[in-house]
Design a protein that fits this description.
single chain; about 0% strand; 15 helices; about 475 residues; two-stranded antiparallel ribbon; mainly alpha
Length: about 475
Amino acid sequence: MPVMDMLATAPSSILFWVVVVALACLALYLSREQGHQAILSLTQVLHRTFRFAAAATVKTEQKLAARNREVLLAAGREAAERQIEREFERMEAAVDRDLAQCPALHRRMNEAILKIEEDLQASVEVPPSPPGWVSAVDSVARIPDQGDGMVSQILEKIHDSMVKAHEQAMTEYRATVKERHQRLKGLMPFWRQLSQLITRADKNIGTVRQRAKVIDRYILEYEQILQRSDRALGMLSSSSLVQFFVSSFVLIIAIGGAVINFHLIARPMAEMVGGNNLIGSFKISDIAALVIILVELSMGLFLMESLRITRLFPVIGALPDVMRVRMLWITFGILLCLASVEAGLAYMREILVQDELATSALLRGEVATAAGQFAWITTAAQMGMGFILPFALVFVAIPLETFVSSLRTVLGLILGAVLRGLAIVLRAMGGSFRTLGYFLVDVYDVIIFLPLWAERHIRPSDNADSKPAEAAKL
């Protein structure tokens, strides 16, 4: 039976599918070389595409790392310069406070030393000079005694005179020694004063020396930043990460305070601007309460900028001192007014709550309890919170500045890690496509294994010669 008739009569028979597979294998066998080239070309294109994408990603990551390094070093250099500037200001204050007294201390020390020298010179012990007749008495005492009574009496009188002279000399000597001791005793206050002056001068110099050591440490870190050393880069990276997490934690606490402040003034705002009016799907009262809180935060930022505690707005820091002080008092006045408004709203909220409780009690037919006499405690607490929270939110500017400055570094590190991971994935996918091409070639040959098997047995020599060439193509 002809093949076409068999296909026409039994299209669903096993023989039909056998013929179809045989024809497909024959077609694949005849186009084997072109099929291998097509598979390898396609997988090679995909391999090169992914490798190129990986290389581009690596270059992008390197540029991002270089930019992050520059941003980190610039931020570290700015922070180090600010810290060194503040340390020099503290050093100047310490020098003006402590070392400015050095001339007075030096003068007082000189006066004390001069007084001590004068008293020491006055208290020097001068031995009494022997009288002039001592030598004469000595010569008379050498006269030999020959039993003459007159000589003995003269010698006794001379002896008595010598004893009296000795006693008088000893009395004068004791008086002189006593006077010297009194002068030395009088030197003790001057010695103590001199010791106190030296201790004070040493303390003042020690304070300045300690400040100098701190400045030396900051200068060393600043030099390392200018030298772009890896140690400085690692130190700045770790410091940025710590500052990011700490500032995030403080900002979360501040957001909680802002939420409490919002609920404290949202209800009385509904009585002022209308609780049923909407803008879109939001109540006007909620928007008004949120605007008040945001204005308080803005005034807090401007106040911190005017005090030069933060530097989020360089324009404010560059203002003249007179204008900056005026802006400081204006922002503080606005903030004080808003805090007073919030205290009034908190008081109004407590009144509304008490009215609602009283109305509910009357509708239920209950008698008002005596708990209302202690309502002033809750009212005072709410008014205190309404007045203090705006001033507490002023300090949000400090962690906000730290968060913004460290966020650039953290985002750069995260994006760099993502790009490195993407480059690894693209490189792995490029290598897998190259391996996939060889695998598909082998699958292609597996599909047409029967014609290849027949070819190897019919022309073994030709096949042996073609294997090296085919392997070289692959």
